[in-house]
Amino acid sequence: MDAQELYRRTVQAWNDRVAAVPAGAWADPTPCQDWSVRELVNHVTYENKWAMPLFAGSTVAEVGDQFEGDLLGDDPAAASLAAADDAVAAAATRIPEGGTVALSFGDTPVEEYVTQLAADHLVHGWDLAAATGGDTRFDPEVVAAIAAWFADREELYRGAGAIGPAATGTGEPQDDLIASFGRDPGWVAGQG
After folding, report:
1. Which residues have C-beta within 8 Å of that of residue 180, sequence separation ≥ 6?
2. Which residue, 3, 11, 104, 138, could crosslink 111 as a Cys pair with Cβ 3.0–4.6 Å?
3. Per the domain annotation, does 170 fall within a domain?
4. For the segment 25-41, what is each residue's pLDDT rounded down to a tens digit?
5. pLDDT tens for each residue of 54-100
6. In a domain, 82, yes or no
């Protein structure tokens, strides 16, 4: 599966879970320590907002702090869905051009950046679903593609502090992927 299709599918899965957040759940805790449901959704919205100027050739310095703070306003689901759809459209335009995007740690091939975004949407989609009692099962083909990509990057992510220590997996591919990103695949809302 190519990076564009992987990204599109993980964003759609994310959007499905955002649209299903119950009205009273926005302040609930998530598997991401210190983040409520709203803060988690704001984080992914922030990444999607950042993606658009980066795909257009802006540097991190040029983007600056324009996306800091609350990006969700009075309708968090609508704000998140719009940013996600805009980022997917920007990626679809940018990926065929190839080249690199300027990230904080240096120039990165555009397909690598898109795959990073896809992985973040999948893992945070699981976080969101677990926190809200939603559907925590993802397309096995997507899970396998992210797992194959992440296998060579896990220690780099951990060493950079982007993820915590690996949790214990179950031998099931999705659970093992979630555990490799530092989440307890058995995390249950109200017990985490």
Report:
1. 147, 150, 154, 166, 169
2. 3
3. yes
4. 999 999 988 899 999 99
5. 999 998 888 888 899 999 999 999 999 999 999 999 999 999 998 98
6. yes
Domain that holds residue 49: 3-20+27-180
- Both structure tokens of 169: 């997996």
**CATH number of the domain enclosing 148:** 1.20.120
Question: How many domains, the chain?
Answer: 1
In angstroms, what CA-CA distances link 132 with 22, 116, 125, 151? Answer: 7, 24, 11, 28
The answer to whether 80 and 18 are in contact (CB under 8 A) is: yes
The structure tokens listed for 171 are 């031998």
The answer as to whether 185 is a domain residue is no
**Residue 186 falls inside a structural domain:** no
